[in-house]
Write a structure and sequence with these properties.
CATH architecture of the largest domain: 3-Layer(aba) Sandwich
Number of domains: 2
Order of helices and strands: HHEHHEEHHEHEEEEHEEHEEHEHEHH
CATH topology of the largest domain: Aminopeptidase
Number of helices: 13
Radius of gyration: 23 Å
Structural class: alpha/beta
Helix content: 25-40%
CATH class of the largest domain: Alpha Beta
Strand content: 15-25%
């Protein structure tokens, strides 16, 4: 299994390249090009942009940011012809047919970063190794760089082992997972409608090194909301009575007063409020960003409609105009039993059964849920996985996915388990420090069927 080292090297190199050039949702043109170029060379059938995105379902896309990102991508070597082919929309699917009858299996990988300024201190591995973010205020602090690199390396592995596989594969590289914006337009475009099996995954989260979790159900349904108030200007000294304050209307929005739902959990959060033009001018503009969540789609919809009603009431009370826009959305998630059972067995092969858990109440929100719901409605089996790495927590300046062994981290796994994984992998490094573990630790030399977490059931 000497080839494993080659896959790991590829994955690490690509992950670091992507980490250095992070791109926020709907602007991932450089990342999209890296994926396209790698998979085209492998002979996969690729669709991009408007071929996999339904524009009318797009949320939270800033056309000005997109235009700037396309210019930046061109300056960094992305061909104009490719940028034109995208139609200004990131998102990519790649298909591979083994030529043997079998299921259609899909895997989703997200590409976008978060708006966090990375730590540029020598204590931070990416800074010390020279691949920390070059784009101010942008960072891969959630592991999507590892996800994308895993997807590309998986494509390489599938291509190399095509004679041992059956059916067809589809890799979905999704934009704008942060803010839950990218899945809905890809689902609307039908990219999962013909799948038989569908899997999504995330590195880290509740799983530390040597652990995996299979999500049976959970994730909160959510709506990300942009609220705009528009008032009437006036001078605060000479004619204040003529003004209508957008700021006062925004400040009066008391969303925490929404009655909680008796049939499940609810969440409400206001994350941003920007308003006003000057200290002596009645504020004409106010912009607010907030979100609702609920344990079911119905409960979240109740929260969203409550927010809309409160905003419209406050606007009417203060004599200003308002606009409420959905900037992102995800639903709750119910995996299928068959997919969960398969994932548990695959993870047990990799990590040992004692290091695999099943989650009934996965927290947070994930717009994979929208793709999965659509896939299931069309007859697919689907679930979601977490696979472990040691990290400092997501969405923070010091977040990092370690891509080389660190001695003290071995303490997180029993000596017996470590020995088993070293023998199974066939090479010295433990490789449980980033997404490489998810792809490669299922490799079992000497077994008739080589099992990986991604492809345990696709052998001839």
């Amino acid at each position: 299994m000497q080839d494993c080292a080659r896959y790991v090297e590829e994955m690490t190199r690509l992950r670091r390249e992507i980490h250095r050039r992070p791109e926020e949702g709907w602007t991932e043109f450089e990342t999209q090009w890296k994926v396209f170029r790698a998979l085209e060379a492998l002979g996969w059938t690729i669709r991009v942009g408007l071929d996999v995105i339904r524009p009318e379902a797009v949320m939270g896309r800033n056309a000005e940011l997109v235009e700037k990102a396309m210019v930046r991508a061109a300056e960094h070597g992305v061909p104009e012809s490719f940028l034109k082919a995208t139609g200004g929309y990131t998102g990519l699917t790649a298909d591979f047919d083994t030529g043997r009858e079998g299921p259609v299996t899909g895997f989703r990988f997200d590409m976008d970063c978060v708006l966090v300024e990375e730590l540029h201190d020598a204590s931070h591995l990416p800074a010390a190794e020279g691949f920390d973010s070059e784009i101010s205020g942008h960072m891969h602090a959630c592991g999507h760089d590892a996800h994308t690199a895993t997807g590309v390396t998986l494509a390489h592995w599938i291509t190399d082992h095509k004679d041992e596989l059956k059916g067809r594969f589809r890799l979905i590289f999704q934009p704008a997972e942060e803010g839950t914006r990218g899945a809905a337009p890809m689902a609307a475009a039908g990219v999962v409608d013909d799948l038989n099996w569908f899997f999504g995954a995330h590195v880290g989260c509740n799983c530390r090194i040597g652990e995996a979790s299979v999500v049976k159900r959970g994730f909160l349904a959510t709506t990300k909301i942009d609220i705009e108030f528009t008032g009437v200007p006036s001078h605060a000294g000479s004619d204040p009575e003529k003004g209508r304050s957008a700021l006062m209307a925004a400040a009066a929005v008391m969303m925490q007063g929404i009655p909680r739902h008796g049939e499940g959990d609810t969440r409400i959060a206001v994350g941003r409020l920007v308003a006003g033009e000057g200290r002596n001018v009645t504020p004409v503009h106010a912009f607010m960003q907030c979100e609702t969540r609920g344990s079911t789609q119905e409960i979240n919809e109740y929260m969203f409609e409550s927010v809309r009603r409160i905003v419209e009431g406050c606007a009417a009370s203060y004599g200003v105009e308002c606009r409420v826009t959905k900037a992102g959305e995800a639903t709750n998630f119910e995996a299928t039993p068959a997919a969960c059972a398969l994932a548990v067995e695959a993870c047990a092969e990799v990590f040992g059964r004692d290091h695999v858990t099943c989650l009934e109440t996965a927290g947070g929100s994930e717009d994979y849920s929208i793709l999965a719901r659509r896939a299931i409605e069309h007859g697919a089996e689907a679930t979601f996985l977490f696979y472990g790495c040691n990290h400092h927590g997501h969405h923070r300046a010091a977040a990092e996915q370690k891509d080389r062994p660190v001695a003290h981290e071995a303490d997180a796994v029993s000596p017996a388990a470590l020995g088993r994984r070293q023998r199974a992998a066939g090479f010295g490094s433990i490789l449980l420090h980033d997404a490489a573990s998810f792809l490669l630790f299922g490799v079992r030399p000497g077994y008739r069927q080589i099992i990986t977490l991604y492809t345990p059931f696709l052998r001839v």
